Amino acid sequence: RLRRGEAVNILVVSGSRALRRTPAARVWSLAQITASMNHDRAEAVAHGGCPDSPDDWCERLALLAGLTRVCWPIEGFPFVAPASGRMRPVADADRYPYEGPLRRNAAMARWAGDLLRAGHDVRALALRCDWPLREGERATQGTANCRERLIEALGAERVMDLACPKEHGP
Question: Which of these, 13, 31, 148, 169, could form a disulfide with 131 (CB 3.0-4.6 Å)?
């Protein structure tokens, strides 16, 4: 469903892996992803493919909802998994080379920006947590990086940035 000339509502989801640390943070994340999918009337979702994270939860919710999924795994190549049909590489994937999570985030954001300019309705959801994990270190750097890349590519009005309530943290 991501063909040229056919506008699609696409939701890009990124989120901190630290949100898996408590059941309350997981439930909060699932609720935010579901609400965004419904509010934005998403027909397709894109995510970074990190296991046991908001990426993974987005994938599972989209699969249940019958949405097209676009996965940007840290290793490998980005691919499209239609609700029905065969998986295929992202069109023009060679325009978005990356190695590692930070470059993957940048590539995914460039791709999202290109789709927006091509006429698709692309929005993003960035889920983060602000609670310290150890010795004051916060679990938001990768998510903050992805959020900033998406804001550069899509504009701040198209990126919803949500912080999990501190009472849901460890």
Answer: 169
Q: What distance in Å separates the CA atoms of residue 20 and residue 150, rounded to the nearest whole number?
A: 23
Inter-CA distances, 148 with 8, 52, 70, 144, Å: 23, 23, 20, 6
Q: Tell whether the model's pLDDT for residue 122 goes beyond 80.
A: yes
Instruction: Give dist(CA 55, CA 66) in Å, integer.
Output: 16
Contacts (Cβ under 8 Å, ≥6 apart) of 27: none
* pLDDT at residue 141 greater than cutoff 60: yes
3-class SS at 130? Answer: coil
CA separation for the pair 17, 40 (Å, rounded): 23
Give the ranges where 75-167 is alpha helix by DSSP (H): 100-117, 141-154
In terms of C-beta density within 10 A (0-12 exposed, 13-18 middle, 19 or more buried), how is residue 139 classed?
Answer: buried
- Phi then psi for residue 104, to 5 deg, are -60, -45
Question: With bands split at pLDDT 50, 70 and 90, how would you rate the model's confidence at 140?
Answer: low
C-alpha to C-alpha distances, 67 to 2, 81, 82, nearest whole angstrom: 11, 9, 7
